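Checklist before submission:
- one chain only
- standard amino acids only
- sequence pasted in full

Submission:
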Amino acid sequence: MKFTRLRCIAVAAFALAATASAVPAVTHAEPTAGSGIRVAAATDDWRCTVTLTMKNYTNAHNWYTLDYWFAQEDQPWAPTDAELISGYNRNPGYPNPLPAPWRLIAGAKEAVGRYTPPNDEAAAANLGSLRSAVPADFPAEQRYGYGGVYTNFNAAALTTPYTTKVTFDLRTVTPAPPVTSDGTYTIRYRVYLGPQTQALAFWKPRSITVRGCKTPTGSSLGSSDGSWGSSVG
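Returned file contents:
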């Protein structure tokens, strides 16, 4: 009888432990396939250029905005390849003023890094940084912010997301931290600003290392391998 009772207790304890271990950790899941925003980076090695690409499955035109920063500019609220704290102004440790390039933007839950140069459509709209876009023939009344209700998919591009990209030379960024001794820069990049961000995920910063950053701007040394860097989705 005593053995049976102990065995029952052990089985119950094991079942509880198994149940607890089966409960997934609370994370911000990536958007499902065919929805949301995807970002990727590629380098033209030995030329110190990076190409950042945004693929948009939503109807948000010029709303999702990419920001980035150099690894030397990492801060406690922007750790390497990690999620930021959710909730408005949750970090009480902000210095005042924030060190460049960090800044607080109305509506943003945490500090925002540098803006990239804009893609063509964002530049035409006099907007900074790489931003989401939709096809030119996408009806204006269906665009988020132009009368349309936000949707987490682009009805005109369910299987082929609308792609925008920008390429720039890190040696032209001003001000920029000193280049590393091996002539590289590592940058963190993400899409953090935009509508319904929490529903899609708080985007984790990703990293890519760019080479050739000690050569003069416009150097023709090396060649492009067209390789993709770290990407989301």
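Reviewer check: The chain has a mean pLDDT of 76.
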